[in-house]
Write a sequence for this structure.
């Protein structure tokens, strides 16, 4: 091969090397521009995503299901003779959960029942005595008028010397005796009416006192049956048959799984835009990502978890390390969603709060007007006691002929 051969040693034209060298910078610039454009678009996309999505939401996985735990305890001392509900079982409000031996309470109830009946009959007797006293007053008035008439007839005869003064004096003494008898009868009538005046038999103070004693005995007897104050599910049963229980001793717990909430523990920095009323989405670990609950923020805790712990942190000491604190945010759940997908207390959840609208209040503006929880089980018990007392009173009232 000669020196003037236009081909290179590897068989390629010599002129192509300069052409490729000329084209490589342009390709590199285009590639660099393409990569730069990709990064710019990615950054812009990420910025838009943060601006319209991530910046309008705060999220935490430090969130757990909360709910009421209604402790069931005895109100009177006694020995357990029956247990009518166990762990995991559903109970209705007013259902009997535990029965205590009621022998002593039944005896006291019977005594109170007899005392109430006796009080009613005693007032009836007082009413009859008052009527008898009124009749005695009427008889005394008649006797006084007769004595006064006799004296009036004999006085002209004395003036005409047709009647002896001794007889007239005797008649005057009779008038005085009749007047004294009338005064005594009126005093007795007043005393008899003092015990019953202004009231009917059922409202007499003696009957009311006996009625109150019966009501207390009846309620005490009923408390040997321990009722469920709310509808829910039994947990933590510790009572056993034969146990001797005391008032206030916890026997089991009833958990209403219909009224639950989420306690989401957000970091301090995440609370900046959280407001009452903001919507939230919740996913429970027990259902995975297939079930989503919808709730709303109903309140923000009054302090961090460390403040209310058993041993609060002493940050004023020299041994201090700053730790990011968390504040519980309560989120109410939709009862219909809970009915479809029940939750349990303490389950882990992921909570996302939409903070787009952060103009709402951080603290409630007014105190709560409605009760947080209530039951009418014990009110029904008192009403039944009144019905039983009314039956006893009616049974001992005089029968209409």
């Amino acid at each position: 091969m000669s020196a003037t051969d236009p081909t290179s040693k590897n068989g390629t034209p010599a002129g192509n090397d300069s052409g490729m060298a000329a084209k490589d910078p342009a390709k590199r610039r285009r590639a660099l521009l393409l990569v730069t454009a990709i990064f710019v678009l990615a950054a812009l996309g990420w910025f838009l995503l943060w601006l319209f999505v991530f910046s309008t939401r705060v999220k935490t996985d430090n969130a757990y299901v909360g709910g009421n735990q209604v402790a069931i305890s005895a109100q009177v001392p006694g020995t357990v003779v029956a247990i009518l509900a166990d762990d995991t079982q559903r109970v209705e409000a007013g259902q009997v959960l535990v029965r205590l031996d009621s022998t002593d309470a039944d005896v006291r109830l019977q005594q109170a029942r007899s005392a109430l009946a006796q009080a009613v009959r005693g007032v009836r007797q007082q009413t009859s005595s008052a009527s008898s006293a009124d009749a005695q007053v009427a008889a005394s008035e008649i006797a006084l008028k007769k004595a006064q008439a006799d004296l009036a007839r004999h006085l002209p005869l004395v003036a005409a010397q047709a009647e002896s003064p001794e007889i007239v004096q005797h008649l005057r003494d009779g008038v005085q005796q009749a007047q004294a008898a009338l005064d005594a009868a009126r005093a007795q009538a007043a005393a008899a009416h003092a015990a019953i005046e202004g009231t009917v038999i059922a409202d007499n103070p003696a009957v009311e006192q006996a009625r109150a004693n019966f009501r207390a005995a009846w309620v005490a007897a009923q408390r040997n049956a321990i009722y469920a104050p709310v509808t829910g599910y039994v947990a933590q049963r510790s009572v056993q048959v034969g146990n001797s229980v005391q008032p206030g001793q916890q026997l089991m717990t009833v958990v209403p799984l219909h009224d639950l909430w989420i306690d989401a523990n957000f970091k301090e920095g995440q609370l900046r835009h959280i407001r009452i009323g903001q919507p939230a989405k919740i996913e429970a670990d027990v259902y995975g990502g297939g079930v989503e609950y919808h709730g709303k923020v109903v309140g923000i805790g009054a302090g961090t978890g460390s403040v209310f712990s058993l041993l609060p942190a002493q940050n004023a000491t020299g041994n201090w390390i700053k730790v990011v604190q968390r504040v519980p945010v309560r989120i109410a759940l939709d009862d219909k969603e809970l009915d479809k997908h029940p939750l349990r207390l303490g389950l882990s959840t992921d909570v996302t709060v939409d903070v787009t609208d952060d103009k709402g209040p951080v603290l409630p503006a007014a105190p709560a007007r409605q009760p947080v929880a209530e039951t009418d089980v014990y009110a029904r018990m008192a009403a039944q006691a009144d019905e039983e007392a009314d039956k006893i009173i009616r049974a001992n009232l005089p029968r209409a002929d």
